[in-house]
Design goal:
The protein is mainly α and 310 residues long. It has 13 helices and no strands. The chain is globular and about 65 Å long.
Length: 310
């Protein structure tokens, strides 16, 4: 005969695993309360890791605080730090370099990523092998990628210079990707595109598997592209946010050089915080970057939702 006893509630099961002194109180809780009790430690940890540092950074941005020396008298400056930031030409230069980097990388990665997704979705011999090969760059650490491409960009022994020299018929040592003011911005764009185009491809593949598999040009524009557009916009959002705060790969590859040609906003922030030790100033800059990214992302998400509702 089947057991007709009702299933134990979440509270009863939890009470059975607790000491008798606590079990009585646990049995009186609802399942919803028990669920909140279980996730409360995780929420507290997230608040401590994310919310508290943000509040502390905002507070420091209104002061003259310096981490070195840490015992200097603290003075409340109000909006003076923000005023200094908005009139600092170095800050605006860093923001312009960041904007050019974000627009260039996101545009190229989106085009190449969608093209690769469209090609990979057309099943062919060796499909699985080549898909795996394409995904390898995004599996690597940015630190490894930075050091790897620093070696490739070496004018004397770097493979990149030899390939370009062979293709264009020029001396491989006649140009320096990292050391040339004109080429250095493109050097970090090339590395980021090489590393993260597979990520965009994966997002686009999520939709490519559900749309019409015909390869006709008209069906591509009328069916495939419109249906994949929300996923493409989602990829643009993710890569835009990540590239706006890009630091590790560029820091290892060029460290903002030559001069300040590739000095992104994140590298400027690092210099202010950990080289000049202007903690209050760098905190104000971090707040401005956060508000900028949050505001642009919020506007973009609203546009994305309108596209998805069509």
């Amino acid at each position: 005969m089947l057991d007709q006893r009702p299933a134990a509630t979440l509270a009863e099961r939890a009470a059975g695993l607790t000491p008798p002194a606590v079990a009585k109180g646990v049995r009186g809780l609802s399942d919803r309360a028990i669920a909140w009790l279980f996730i409360a430690p995780t929420l507290a940890l997230l608040l401590a890791i994310n919310i508290f540092p943000l509040i502390w950074t905002i507070r420091l941005s209104f002061t003259n605080y310096r981490a070195n020396p840490p015992n200097a008298p603290l003075k409340w400056l109000g909006l003076e730090r923000y005023s200094d930031l908005l009139t600092d030409p170095d800050i605006w230069h860093g923001m312009q370099v960041t904007a050019r980097f974000v627009v260039s990388t996101v545009a190229i990665e989106t085009l190449l990523g969608f093209a690769l997704a469209y090609l990979v979705d057309r099943k062919f011999r060796g499909h699985g092998f080549w898909t795996t090969v394409i995904l390898i760059p995004m599996m690597l650490s940015p630190a490894v990628v930075g050091n790897f491409w620093t070696f490739l960009y070496q004018p004397q022994i770097g493979l990149f210079n030899y390939v370009v020299g062979f293709a264009l018929g020029i001396d491989p040592s006649s140009f320096q990707m990292i050391g040339d003011v004109r080429l250095a911005p493109w050097s970090i764009v090339i590395v980021d595109v090489w590393m993260w185009t597979p990520y965009v491809m994966l997002i686009c593949l999520a939709e490519a598997a559900e749309v019409d598999r015909a390869s006709k040009w008209r069906q591509f524009w009328s069916i495939t592209l419109p249906m994949a557009m929300p996923f493409i916009m989602l990829a643009v959002l993710f890569r835009g946010i990540e590239n706006f705060k890009m630091f590790d790969m560029v820091n290892l590859l060029t460290n903002g050089g030559p001069g300040s040609t590739t000095e992104l906003a994140s590298i400027t922030l690092k210099r202010e915080a950990f080289e000049k030790w202007t903690t209050g100033y760098s905190s104000a800059f971090a707040v401005i970057l956060f508000v900028t990214i949050f505001g642009l992302a919020n506007i973009y998400v609203k546009a994305l939702n309108r596209v998805r509702q069509r």
